[in-house]
């Protein structure tokens, strides 16, 4: 009998590379943060990601990838539509996150499959048959691509409701009202102190983002918004601490500012990240909305390319109780972006764009105007 190995911090090899890849696909490991030794090292970041994963799976949190944890990781990596789901009499029913996703979909649409347990059990098969009958598909109880497509079509139409997180956030926004005065916005300039972030000759990420955060702060305070910074010019609290600070002051919104870097000097543009992970089927809808507004306003006002908005489960986004968005304002390794980041005018435009995006977030939908029309002066008059 062979014993399956357990992987732990310090291990290296292809099995560790596979573990890293699964964790990255689950949004638990920053795929960009590859250690110098390559992608095959079980380092501290991997251990932290494994612990987070174990926490979300309600299993022993020890940072070790035992055969059991490995099985859970494999289970988590199935996505609805990746494979056909069917129950066969002699085999164990299929299980995995794709089954849980299916069960949530069925329940949202009113097909009773019992509880969400990630197992393709009899109640789930019966609910799938019922669903198939309703949409005119052969009621064979097999969740194939056609069935998944029919589910997705219906779910998109119903996408407004359901998730507790989503409801909590939109309720908070409604009770806070559409106006800016009285809001609390926490600005989080990345890095700080000895941690400078990306540096190039003449430009330092921690200084640039502190300067832009300060410009945003000045503008927001003129609009009677209460603002806090997560750090002073010289401090560098960790991500968890920054999130806690925003929680402590009861912030309505957290905006984190960074610049990016890449080995390829052609990489350039702005991207915005909100808390989310398609694979677990949860996200911050307000964060996503704000990320989209920020992208729209910044790219309309500056020469930065639009790299889009993306859901991530980084600590800062995970531990904040309010919508939180991290903006990567261009690449210091790009000649084009670096020239912009060095200029006062660009920094002013970025600050304007962010403030306009904040205001748009709290405007009722009917007041939303195409970008470029709303000016700061108009906002002050509201
Ligand atoms: Zn950074």
| Tally of distinct domains | 3
How does the overall form come out from the CA principal axes?
A: globular
Sketch the topology as an H/E string, one letter per element. HHHHHHHEEEHEHEEEHEHEHHH
Largest sheet: 7 strands, mixed
What ligand species are in this complex?
zinc ion
Report helical residue fraction.
40-55%
Distance between the termini: 74 Å
CATH level-1 class of the largest domain: Alpha Beta
Q: Which terms would index this structure?
A:
seven-stranded mixed β-sheet; 14 helices; two-stranded antiparallel ribbon; single chain; globular; Muramoyl-pentapeptide Carboxypeptidase, domain 1; alpha/beta; 3 domains; 382 residues; Aminopeptidase; 12% strand; binds zinc ion
Secondary-structure topology with pairs:
Layout: H1 14-25, H2 44-56, H3 67-76, H4 97-108, H5 122-135, H6 145-157, H7 164-176, E1 184-189, E2 199-200, E3 203-204, H8 205-222, E4 226-229, H9 239-248, E5 253-260, E6 270-277, E7 282-283, H10 285-301, E8 306-312, H11 315-319, E9 324-331, H12 335-342, H13 344-362, H14 376-381
Parallel strand pairs: 1-4, 1-5, 5-9, 6-8
Antiparallel strand pairs: 2-3, 6-7, 6-9
The site of zinc ion has 5 residues, from loops.
